[in-house]
# Entry
Amino acid sequence: MNGNYNDLPNGYLESIRLGLDGVRRFRDGLSCGAGTREENMQRLKDALKQADAVIIGAGAGLSASAGFTYSGERFDRWFADFRDRFGITDMYSGGFYPFPDDETRWAWWARHIYINRYLPIPRPVYHTLLSLVRGKDYFVITTNVDHCFQRAGFEKTRLFYTQGDYGLFQSVNPDIRMTFDNESWGMQAMAAQGFVKGENGFYQGACGKEAMRLPASLVPVCPLDNSAVTMNLRSDENFVEDEGWHAASAAYADYLKKHRGKRVLFLELGVGGNTPVIIKYPFWQMTRENPRAVYACLNAHEACCPKQIEKQSICLDGDTGDVLARLV
# Structure
């Protein structure tokens, strides 16, 4: 590809348009679904077996179930010094903190990237999910940026990461529409802070006094023009949709077109209310348009569906990983 993607189908924009169009039609309120929990578990097992296609929509709740929590013990273990000095209470808000200099900011991000992108996945939730769809015709669309699907063994050509990847940098130069792998840099940056490398990855040294600043030579820059870089995470219009992103977006559009009207299971996992227009609303609308489709929502405290598609829906409240484990 040469950077001109206008001729490719854009599954991301098409999905958003579909969701925006559909949500206007769902004005009768929401439902927690019909039937008992056991009945719905059996319905989901049957839907998995009978589906011509399984379209997985994954949000932050799935990764939280897998152990990628952004506050509490895990945050305190890796960021206690940043907490004590700057008053930061969780990883999410820390990503927006106005650190005093680039050396400190990138020391923070090195830890954030490492534990959420390169450290082994704490719980086998993604592997459990893979065991449920292995051998089936599936596709994944996710707003998660931790790359857990590919790390767990899902086929790369069946994945669409819509919001970026912790493992990629992008230049602040708007003319450079490319992304750059940061794994090698991340390992150097962790070592430079004093974290110790063992067989299972970095860990904190005995003194627990890791540096909170990187050497100036380790502040990352773009390899093409030495401009500053930032994370490849969608936060504004400057987000770089690179060649791989556009290929995945086109693949998602093609997949939806290919399976329109077939027995499709829309399996929504841990999608909350932050970006419902990317996964949740489009799934609702595509279920409404297809009488052969089934919509399944697995979520802790947020498992619901529009009343218009209640008969086609399965809502299971609880930890997503625990529900998936019961399906195996």
